[in-house]
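Case study B.
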Amino acid sequence: MTTLKINGQVHEVDLSPDTPLLWTLRDALGFTGTKFGCGMALCGACTVHVDGQAVRSCVTPISALGDKPVRTIESMDADRVGKAVQDAWVELGVAQCGYCQAGQIMTATALLKDNPKPTDAQIVAAMSGNLCRCGTYTRINAAVRLASSRLSGNKTGARA
Amino acid sequence: MTRTDIQPLEQPARRRLLQAGAAFALSVQFGGLIAKADAAEAGKKYGALSMPGGVVDNPLVFVSLARDGTVTIVAHRAEMGTGVRTSLPMVVADEMEADWSRVKIVQADANEARYGSQNVDGSRSMRHFLAPMRRVGASARQMLEAAAAAQWKVPVTEVQARHHEVIHTPSGRRLGYGDLAEAAMRQPVPAHDQLRLKQPDAFRYIGKGKIVPADSRDIAQGKATYGIDVRLPGMVYAVIARPPVYGGKLRKVDSAEALKVPGVLRVVELKGYDGPPLFNPVGGVAVVASNTWAAMQGRAALKLEWDDGANASYDSAAFRRALETAARQPGKALRNDGDAVAALAAGKGQRRVSAEYYVPHLAHASMETPVATARFVDGKCEIWAPSQAPQGALESVAKHVGLDPRDVTVHLTLLGGGFGRKSMADFISEAALVSKAMGGTPVKLQWTRDDDIRHDYYHTVSVERLESTLDASGKPQAWLHRSAAPTIGSTFKVGAQGKADFEAAMTAINIPYQIPSIRLESADVPAHTRIGWFRSVSNIPHAFAVQSFVAELAHQAGRDPRDYLLELIGPARRIDPATLSDKWNYSESPDVYPLDTGRMRRVIEEASRRAGWGRKLPKGHGLGIAMAYSFVTYVATVVEVAVDAKGQITIPRVDMAVDCGPQVNPERIRSQVEGGCVMGIGLAMLGEISFQEGRVQQSNFHDFEILRSQMAPRAIHTWLVGGDFDVPPGGVGEPPVPPVAPALCNAIFAATGQRIRSLPIRDQLAQA
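Model:
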């Protein structure tokens, strides 16, 4: 049995300890917001927060988590920064198919928690580990800027 | 809302009647164009009516009203990112004067007899269903008006539906849509000749771009359901080891170690099929487990031996040489205006120009890999899948598990991208076969990224050879295009070679250039893997070659490439595609959708004006232009590129001018154009699938790279041209892709003097 702390709740899972967090979340616990994209930490679709850091859950075995808290996309609307990022994503119509966007939002949220006012270059650098086959990158950058601006107290925000 | 609050959708089949009247209803919308077309080619079906599922525009199929005023509209097509799951119901809501905030969208299952064509491919959703969805909405509005008039006992001419209520104009009395729900649904469906469509200036949502796509919030919160997210009670998980060479077969499997992996439940052999690829599974060995990871670990523990079969020697380097050889010899002439061969032979003393362009295989690599869930119980099979072709998937499953199609149900999830891959149902049938083998246990059949990259239906691989001769003034006197590429036809017929009509029609045969002799030839070359549709299909290699070559001719002539392109296109005129030997024209009527060089000119002029064509650029920067007409939409692209001293490429800006006729949801059009631009840059910079010994050499995003944010254009400006609702609608999903790669390579030439003729660009500009 492995004990996991996910979105503030404790879960027990009976899985091989090398099982990646991704499949544990999705198959065993039903947190399907976190997506499979590559299985090799190449695309970022599976990004979650472990102890506040953006982590690729597809290459993170559950045995490596210890008692570190895990946050997934399902908890982001209760997070001040996460909610602001989600709102910016909806407002600017970022998603096309939307499949990668949970991972994008998790990466963007971690960025803004770490660096509330990133430069354009810092945004691109932080987001370049997250692939989007629909090609929504210009809107992703604009949405990160908008969320950053909102979180800094600008009511109207900087439009793309 | 309880189930009984919704009025039943069931209604005796009026479909035949409605279809019979469809041509008339179109004529209301598109003026006299379609009537002319009907007179010219009586009996030939175009557009939506040419699709196997045809058109249904019965409001009782698509709309239901609840007593609380909720309007439920069926999205009969699945969402893969273009916005149709929002935009088509939005068209209905606008025509029926429904308040969008009170509209609920429900996703249809696969059922083309009920809903008409459900294929989300070929950039056809809005093109084919704008008019039918307008008729659905107008019918519902008139039924609400008729119900209110009956209740008030006043002439229907005295009432008007407006924003979710019907108003009796003389008295000001009002009834909400909820109050009228039951009575309205009992009204007769108006005949087509009784329908009153809104004038475009009365649209509330169409053309406004104010509607947030239906699933936006769910997507941002991780609550949206894609194919991968389906969960059923007692469900197990499966992955499949497939033959590494297409056409190969399993010789031997030892599954002893696999069965020892904790969580692995069963190992199931699946047979392959002889004959053409079709949408058949390729066979292999399925490992079924209690979770996806265990299934993957079990698969890794299989000991497998394969017979590689006839494609075991497929080698991309050798095949490229074979394509080049084929493109340097005469092929089958598909278009021959004038005598290009003689003109080229006679062109002594003139400048003779020739060039060959290469585009390799590409993989779709949608972020959601193929995945489907199936439950085969009691002689019935239920499927949950991300499908671009639901009816085809249903029929394919029925065939493979041996059921009558009536015993198969296909529920549609969101698609985590498609780009053509999810038109093929091989992965859906695999899920059904494994569930059947498991005695009915629900199975989620998951493809890993490795599976996706190695077992795709690939974009073809091609060599396009172009030759011309310029007179003293720099005008081309001949145009000879020899194309060598495996055809998609080979996926449906063993041994099919040479371009199909629809492939030739994609920016190769239908060039309207003012050149005395134009000839297109197609070489017979075989396919050694499964060839499929990739977003914009043959337009990718054809537009890359044609639009690069025009810029090369301009350079040889010492002319500005934009001005030269406009001169080749010539004055504004409407051309019957058949006069260019185009037998397809995207299945649209040549009368309703003539090739319009005026629209070509306008997008070129708009893109170049907005991009500041001719402006002074920093050192190392260049502007390139290209134009492509595809899916009856006109797109011109100007790329600004910056190449540094080391040959590193960045793209500060791209301008895309698009004329797709009416702009139903401009905000989603812009998002498609931005996405198509990024995909075009990505395939030009990085995209390549290659084979050795019949095996795909790539397996994941480290070796099949797609564009990352740091390489994407810093700014993409979309300029929508036209937009008149009197013009028939064009496609949007695919048309942005074709002009991007040639515009980029033309920009690189402007910046560096180096001409890229072989994709991907990768490090071709790298300086030591």
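Residues 125-152 of chain B form the longest helix (28 residues). The remaining cases will be described in the next quarterly update.
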